[in-house]
């Protein structure tokens, strides 16, 4: 059974790095020894020793006595029969997903195409997914409803803001679950209210310098026809089955449908209109800190 002895020199070497090394400004070296290795071949000894060491201290793990330093490299040298000397090299901790200032932010705007209803012949020419003026009116017998006769559907592109966050870490962050893709913010995030930001991508890749690059992409709900911000709610508008025509609602009912706070599931159910929150919410700030 291999045995590891750490810190074979009482005082580890601590040095300042050159200013141009943007990732660190300190380096600490912990020398040690591994003996009773099983392997015989030179390369096998190195591999076995590395496996034994990383089982105790993996790349990216903090220094046990200084949490501001993390392990970045092992230097291993065979010195005898099944014995190696090693140097564990620590540097100032690289940015992690828990440090807000670590994220590099790319901000852009794109066009999102969606179907919207319009009132045909409306002199104002306003589109009506938010403006359908939709108000079912029931008689005491429950058979009479007011209909909108002149309604059409068009495909229209609306501006949508996209934020891309990128950060370099030593290894894949374990605090960010990948199943948060397809969820929206549960509170104010990136300056917008609950339900406004949908995370559409979360990816990671390794680099040749043994770093791990994490990228998260957030898409804000497209602007409405009147250029106001909204969230990812959807409006389900009822129709009168005998004719297939849309029903009408009052401005006050539509205002309630628009302003009721976002939640996952049924946000609001009124006369002939149902507002749905199709995406579950989660705490983005807890994962990304911005």
Q: What is the domain total for the residues? A: 2
Runs in which pLDDT lies below 50 for 5 or more consecutive residues are 17-24, 96-101, 121-145
User: SSE order, as H and E?
Assistant: EEEHEEEEEEEEEEEHEEEH
- Radius of gyration (CA) equals 30 Å
Structural class: mainly beta
pLDDT average, as an integer? 77
Strand tally is 17
- Helix count, per DSSP? 3
Q: Quote the distance from N terminus to C terminus.
A: 47 Å
Q: Helicity range of the residues?
A: 10-25%
How would you describe the shape? rod-shaped
Q: Strand content of the residues, in percent?
A: 35-45%
Characterize the main sheet: 6 strands, antiparallel
Tell me about this structure:
This protein is mostly beta strands and 290 residues long. The protein has helices at 42-56, 251-259, 284-288; strands spanning 3-6, 13-16, 26-35, 62-63, 66-80, 83-92, 104-119, 151-169, 184-185, 197-206, 212-220, 234-237, 239-240, 245-246, 265-269, 273-277, 281-282. It is rod-shaped and about 90 Å long. Residues 17-24, 96-101 and 121-145 have low confidence and may be disordered.
């Amino acid at each position: 059974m291999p045995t590891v002895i750490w810190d074979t020199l009482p005082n580890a070497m601590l040095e300042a790095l050159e200013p141009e090394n943007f990732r660190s400004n300190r380096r600490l070296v912990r020398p040690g020894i591994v003996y009773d290795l099983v392997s015989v071949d030179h390369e096998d000894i190195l591999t076995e020793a590395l496996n034994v060491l990383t089982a105790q201290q993996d790349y990216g793990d903090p220094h046990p006595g200084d949490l501001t330093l993390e392990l970045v490299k092992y230097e291993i040298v065979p010195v005898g029969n099944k014995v190696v000397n090693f140097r564990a090299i620590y540097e100032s901790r690289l940015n992690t997903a828990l440090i807000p200032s670590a994220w590099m932010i790319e901000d852009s705007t794109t066009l999102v195409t969606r179907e919207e209803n319009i009132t045909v012949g409306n002199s104002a020419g306003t589109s009506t997914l938010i403006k359908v003026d939709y108000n079912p009116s029931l008689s005491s017998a429950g058979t009479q409803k007011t209909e909108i006769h002149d309604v059409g559907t068009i495909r229209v592109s609306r501006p949508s803001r996209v934020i891309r966050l990128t950060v370099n870490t030593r290894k894949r962050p374990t605090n960010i679950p990948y199943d948060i893709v397809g969820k929206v913010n549960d509170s104010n995030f990136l300056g917008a209210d609950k339900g406004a930001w949908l995370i559409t991508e979360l990816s990671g890749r390794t680099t040749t310098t043994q770093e791990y690059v994490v990228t998260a992409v957030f898409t804000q709900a497209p602007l409405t026809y009147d250029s106001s911000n909204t969230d990812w709610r959807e409006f389900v508008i009822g129709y009168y089955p005998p004719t297939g025509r849309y029903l009408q609602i009052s401005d006050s009912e539509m205002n309630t449908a628009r302003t009721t706070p976002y939640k996952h599931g049924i946000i609001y159910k009124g006369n002939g209109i149902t507002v749905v929150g199709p995406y579950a919410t989660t705490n983005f700030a807890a994962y990304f800190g911005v």
